[in-house]
Specification:
By secondary structure, the protein is mainly alpha-helical. The chain has nine helices and no strands.
Length: about 170
């Protein structure tokens, strides 16, 4: 395996490459990774060292190559000037935790629906409805985040399962 880049050790792109190298040895070094994905080695080094932000196309390329769709969320929520204001960072946890959080956030869905219908009935959010409306927005945000986390988990793990099956079939 190639040398571990200590300066880049906490960089998400470098971490993703190291994790991908556990499955595919060609990701062990920046040189072979850059060659494999068609990126300049020094550009990849600067991305992993955090001296430059990657372009969106590069993030898509790295996310696909590494089987790490969470890189797109990291880019959008932390590095894109528009996304920083509109996209929240999603942490990928174990499936059971994500599923339980998603189910828990849906527990009050009927109550939220009823309150929203009451608030929207007259087409105006009155002063006394502000608190309830803000609560509804917060709960909807929580549901949305849990749904996105579940989708991101599925994108990552179902792709990994698919790739492993393809690799096993190629070896036969």
């Amino acid at each position: 395996m190639g040398k571990k880049a200590t300066k880049a050790a906490d960089n998400v792109y470098c971490i993703a490459r190291y994790k991908a190298a556990e499955e595919e040895s060609r990701f062990n070094s920046r040189e072979s990774t850059a060659e494999l994905i068609g990126m300049d080695r020094t550009r990849l080094a600067r991305i992993e060292l955090g001296t430059v932000n990657p372009y969106p196309e590069e993030v898509l390329q790295l996310a696909k190559a590494y089987g790490s769709p969470e890189l797109c969320n990291v880019y959008c929520s932390k590095q894109c000037p528009i996304g920083e204001k509109t996209v929240r960072t999603i942490e990928i946890e174990e499936f059971d935790r994500i599923a339980l959080k998603a189910l828990g956030s849906l527990q009050n869905a009927d109550e939220l629906r009823e309150k929203l219908i009451q608030i929207a009935a007259d087409g105006v959010i009155s002063e006394d409805e502000h608190e309830d409306f803000n609560h509804i927005l917060e709960e909807l945000q929580r549901i949305s985040m849990n749904a996105q986390a579940l989708q991101l988990w599925a994108d990552k793990h179902i792709e990994l399962i698919h790739n492993r099956e393809e690799n096993q079939n190629e070896r036969k």
